[in-house]
Amino acid sequence: MMRNPAETIGNLIDKQSVSFISSVDDDGFPNTKAMLAPCKREGIKSFFWHTNSPSLRIKHYRANPKACVYFYDKRFFRGVMLKGTMDVLDDDKIKKELWKDEYSIYYRDGRDGGDFIILRFTAETGRYYSNFHSEDFKIE
Questions:
Q1: How far apart are the C-alpha atoms of 61 and 65, rounded to whole Å?
Q2: Alpha-carbon torsion, ordered 105, 40, 45, 76, to 10 deg
Q3: Which stretches in the chain have pLDDT values below 50?
Q4: Which of 99, 45, 98 is nearest to 69 (CA)?
Q5: In angstroms, rounded to a whole number, what is the distance separating the alpha carbons of residues 59 and 136?
Q6: Cα distances (angstroms) measured from residue 86 to each of 8, 15, 109, 131, 132
Q7: Rounded (5°) CA angle 135-138-140
Q8: Which of 73, 122, 84, 11 is nearest to 2 (CA)?
Q9: Which residues contact 87 (CB under 8 A, 6 or more apart)?
Q10: What is the separation of C-alpha 10 from the centre of its chain, rounded to a whole number of angstroms?
Q11: What is the distance between the alpha carbons of residues 100 and 2, in angstroms, rounded to a whole number?
């Protein structure tokens, strides 16, 4: 059993350069996509990614905010799945807060060009896997 889920899972997440986000499509099937690591996290409750506004994921989350994210530590074969909701944020304040000049390679028109948008995932529950053992937990 994890002594401190927030610390254990937070450390795992911080060491990963790739994350996986899942949405539900129009036919009710899960869709998973590899993303860069979140550009911001608040504990193990909230995570933020940047993406292109016309992406399929944006369409899915606007229609159905149920979501799942997964972080995997290949070296130690452990991971964590978090279930919750994904919000699409097109708010200038959060976009300004999270923008980095290096993102220009993804968004030719920059932060205010209309293509840069933020996803915010809010976790409700999780499942941690390590050493041939899985453990469910709630996120407070």
A1: 5
A2: 80
A3: none
A4: 45
A5: 30
A6: 23, 22, 25, 30, 29
A7: 145
A8: 11
A9: 61, 65, 119, 120, 121, 122
A10: 13
A11: 35
Q: What pLDDT score was predicted for residue 113?
A: 86
Beta-carbon contacts of residue 25 (< 8 Å; ≥ 6 apart): 31, 60
66 contact partners, CB below 8 Å, separation of at least 6: 24, 83, 85, 86
Kindly give, in sequence order, each residue whose CB lies less than 8 Å from that of residue 33, ignoring residues fewer than 6 positions away: 20, 21, 22, 23, 57
Residues 6+ apart with CB under 8 A from 64: 23, 24
13/72 Cα distance (integer angstroms): 8
* Secondary structure letter of residue 96 according to DSSP: H
